[in-house]
Amino acid sequence: MSQTTIRIVEGDLLAQPVEVIVNAWNRNIIPWWLLLPQGVSGAIKRQGGYAPFRALARHGAIPLGGAVHTTAGRLPFRGIIHVAGINLFWFATEKSIRLSVRSALKLATEKGYRTIAFPLIGAGTGGAGREKTLMLMQEEIGQSGFEGEVVIVVFKRRGE
């Protein structure tokens, strides 16, 4: 019987040796091209191009905690799973973080992925805080039943 392996690393989400990465996104109501590229999404746009976001736009609004799969553009992954980790007020909550993790892992399983890397959902723009987010994500991943490796990537800010 397979089980979930969780690794926590410090570094760059886009440099992880996994099949699919998770992009902490919003509810997909504001057009992607109106948003200033920040955090993970900004890095994806700079390195992977706009194709994943054009595909994401075709899905319309995403329910809070929902997940959408797109291509990875020019990035070396098999895909990107975008999760609606922040509410309409641009805040992450325990519910939005837990639902995002659950939805992403369910979609990864459906697509046949065995390795997935997450950023800290909602810890940046969403204001949830690193420690709280990490704890919630570890709990949710541990309860998920996902069969494979999950990498949680903690971005190291300059000067830390």
Give an overview in words.
The structure is a single chain. The protein is α/β, with parallel strands linked by helices and 160 residues long. The chain has a single domain (4-154), classed as Leucine Aminopeptidase, subunit E, domain 1 (3-Layer(aba) Sandwich). Helices cover 31% and strands 22% of the residues. It has a six-stranded mixed sheet, sandwiched between helices. Helix 4 (130-144) links the parallel strand 5 (115-119) and strand 6. Helix 3 (94-111) crosses helix 4. The radius of gyration is 14 Å and the shape is globular. The termini are far apart. The mean pLDDT is 89.
Give me the secondary-structure topology.
Layout: E1 4-10, E2 20-25, H1 39-48, H2 51-57, E3 67-70, E4 79-84, H3 94-111, E5 115-119, H4 130-144, E6 148-154
Parallel strand pairs: 1-6, 2-4, 2-5, 5-6
Antiparallel strand pairs: 3-4
Keywords summarizing the entry:
160 residues, alpha/beta, 22% strand, globular, 6-stranded mixed β-sheet, Leucine Aminopeptidase, subunit E, domain 1
